[in-house]
Amino acid sequence: QVQLVESGGGLVQAGDSLRLSCAASGRTASTSVLGWFRQAPGKEREFVGAISWRGGSTKYADSVKGRFTISRDNAKNTVNLQINSLRPEDTAVYYCAADSRPPSLSFWSRDYGALREYDSWGQGTQVTVSS
């Protein structure tokens, strides 16, 4: 499995930008698909975005397309989530997740919008957006 530690959360105002980071470690960290999920109070954990192990493919939830950008630096084993134009409804705990299985032939052959595809999770970082 992969060990994941998120950072970068905080209290921000609507319209601000924020960059979350996730440090990945472990034998398969550099070849793992990495994803971001979020969970608001009283709601289920939901998919935000994912990036292939090479970084060439990304997938986003419709609700965040155009505002959220995922990137990764395999030399540093980090994945970042850039969030622009923050809204109060973005308030949630943001979790980094990893699929540490051997890479599939295609990023698109697995449903990386689903929690079941991930076997490692970070502890989360809180993002609170005030109006």
Describe this structure in words.
The structure is a single chain. This protein is mainly β and 131 residues long. The protein is 0% helix and 47% strand. The protein has strands at 3-7, 10-13, 18-25, 33-39, 46-51, 58-60, 68-73, 78-83, 92-99, 120-121, 125-130. Strands 2, 4, 5, 6, 9, 10 and 11 form a seven-stranded mixed sheet that branches. The chain has a four-stranded antiparallel sheet with strand order 1-3-8-7, with no helix packed on it.
Write the layout of secondary structure elements.
Blueprint: E1 3-7, E2 10-13, E3 18-25, E4 33-39, E5 46-51, E6 58-60, E7 68-73, E8 78-83, E9 92-99, E10 120-121, E11 125-130
Parallel strand pairs: 2-11
Antiparallel strand pairs: 1-3, 3-8, 4-5, 4-9, 5-6, 7-8, 9-10, 9-11
Strand portion: over 45%
In DSSP terms (H or I, runs of 4 or more residues), the helix count works out at: 0
Give the H and E element order: EEEEEEEEEEE
* Radius of gyration from CA coordinates: 14 Å
Q: Would you tell me the overall average pLDDT?
A: 96
Structural class: mainly beta
End-to-end Cα distance: 39 Å
Beta strands, count: 11
pLDDT < 50 stretches: none
Name the helicity range: under 10%
Shape label = globular
Question: Quick one: biggest sheet?
Answer: 7 strands, mixed
